[in-house]
């Protein structure tokens, strides 16, 4: 197995998952708190928070597969 000076695949997997989890929590939590505190939010904020939630879900779901399974097999 080749040795790289950069980060290992396990660190990339964990970091990508936790980045996705953080984006998801910020997007979903901000949307829930924003609606609870302010009632209705402007449409651009709803779109931004929804996109943040989807992006966080996609990154958190894909990161373990890409960096944990696919990349080590391609090495």
From TrEMBL:
Keywords: Membrane, Transmembrane, Transmembrane helix. Pfam families: DUF7860 (PF25259). The chain crosses the membrane at residues 12-29, 49-74. It comes from the Archaea. The keyword Transmembrane helix applies. This is Major facilitator superfamily (MFS) profile domain-containing protein. It comes from Natrinema altunense (strain JCM 12890 / CGMCC 1.3731 / AJ2).
């Amino acid at each position: 197995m080749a040795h790289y000076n950069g980060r290992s695949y396990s660190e990339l997997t964990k970091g990508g998952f936790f980045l996705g989890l953080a984006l998801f929590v910020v997007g979903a939590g901000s949307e829930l708190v924003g609606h609870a505190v302010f009632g209705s939010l402007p449409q651009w904020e709803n779109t931004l928070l929804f996109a943040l939630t989807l992006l966080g879900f996609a990154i958190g779901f894909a990161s373990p597969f890409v960096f944990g399974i696919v990349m080590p097999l391609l090495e």
